[in-house]
# Entry
Amino acid sequence: MSARILVGDDDASIRETFEQHLGEAGFEVKSGASAEEALGMLGSFEPALVITDLKLPGMDGLGLLDRIKTDMDDVEVVLITAHEDMKSAVAAMKAGAYDYLVKPLDLDQVDLVIRRGLRERALRGRMRRLTDTDAEPFALDRLVGRDPRMVEIYKLIGVLAGNRATVLIRGETGSGKEGIARAIHYNSPMASEPFIAVNCTALTETLLESELFGHVRGAFTGAVARRQGCFELASTGTIFLDEIGDTSPALQAKLLRVLETREYYPVGGERLHRSEARVIAATHRPLEAFIHTGRFREDLYFRLKVVEINVPALRERRGDVPALVQHLVERIAHELHRDVRGVTDEAMRLLCAYPWPGNVRELENALTRAAVLARGLVIGAEHLSLGAPAAAATAPEAQPQADDSVAAVVRAHVLRVLSRTGGNKRQAARTLGISRSRLDRILAGDRTASERD
# Structure
C-alpha cells in the first residue's frame, strides 16, 4: 500500500502541482484549501505525512501542526514558507515540524524531504515494535510458581536487577526464558530504556548481522539508506538474544567483540560504534556439546555465562500448574474480553496430568483456545485439546501404581481416549463402550468403577 500524503495550501495551483507530481510518484494524495479542511480529512485519510503552508486563512500552519502533533503524533509535518517567514519556520521546527520547504518550490527537494521523512517515520515504527512500549513495569508477580527452583530464580532476578552483568538463560522452548529476561530489565534502574528482543533463529546470517549492527547506505544490494541496528536502538537498555546457540561462528566472533570491547562496525561501515546495552542471551541448545564440535565458540560461551539461569520445564514443576492456569485464564480473559473465570475440577485434573512438552507457552495456547470455545464462566474438559495421546499417557497420574494397578491402568486408558477426543467425554464414552457416568467415576478415581456397568 502506497504512503498517504495530505496537502494544506490555499493556492489551488500548488495543490494541483502536489496532487499531480506526488500521484505520479505513487503516493495517495488529498488536499485542502485551509487548515480546518485538512483537519477534517485527517482522521479518515490517516496520512503518513502532511505538507502545509505556514500562511493559511483562519488557522495557520503552526496551529495545524499543533493539532496534528496532539492527535496523531506519528504523522510527519513539513511546512512551506516564504523567505521572510524564516523566524516562524524555526519556531515550527521547535514545535515538532519535520522540515520546511521554501518557495518557490523545487520538486526534487520536495521528493528528497518526503522520502527522508517517510523513512524516519518507518524507523520509529520499527523501534516501537522492537521495544516494549508498555509503561507498566514487568512486575515479578507476572512470574508464577512456588516451586523451589523458581523461587531461587526470583531471588536471582532481584540481584541481577541491581547490576548490569551479562546473563545466559537456559531452558526448553516455551519455558519462559524471555519473561525472566524482561523481569530483570524492568526491575532494574534502566527500566525506562528500551528492551529489544531478537530471535536469532528467525533470520539468515546476513540479515541477522544487519539487524543487530545496522548497515550503511550501499553496504549491499537494496541498502538504499543507513539503518540503525538493535545494539544502537537499545541504547543503554537491554538486548535479548534469543536462541543464541543457533548463530554462526562468524557472527559469534562479532558478538564476542561487542561483549569484550563494547565496539562494533555496522555492515559495510568503517566507523566504530559503541554500545552500552546490557546483553541477556537464551538458548535451549546443548552449548557444551556445540563447543566440542566447533559449532559454538568457547570464549563467547564464558563471556555470556557471567551469570547462568536454568529454567525448569513445566513437567518438572507440576505443582505450579494450578497457579499458572488461574493466572493465565485471568490474563487471557482480559485480552479476549471474555468472562471466563477458571476451569472445572475435571479440566484441572487433565491439565495437571498432561506432560506439556511445549511448556508454559503450550499451556497458554491450550487455555486460549479453550477460552474461545467456552460458553460459560469456566473452561471444561470438553474445551481442552491436549495434543498427542501418547504424551498424555506418559503423565505421572496416568501410570499404574503398585497398590491399585488395575484401576490405574483403566484410568490411564480412559485418559488416552479422552485426550484423543479433545476432552469430549461423550465421544470418549462412546468410543470406550461405557456410560458417561461410569467414565466420570473412573476419572474421579473410584477404584470400583471398573467393576460397575
Residues 318-451 form a domain with the Helicase, Ruva Protein; domain 3 fold (CATH 1.10.8.60). The chain has three domains: 4-125, 140-310, 318-451. Confidence is low (pLDDT under 50) at residues 131-139, 388-405, 446-453. The first strand starts at residue 4 and ends at 8.
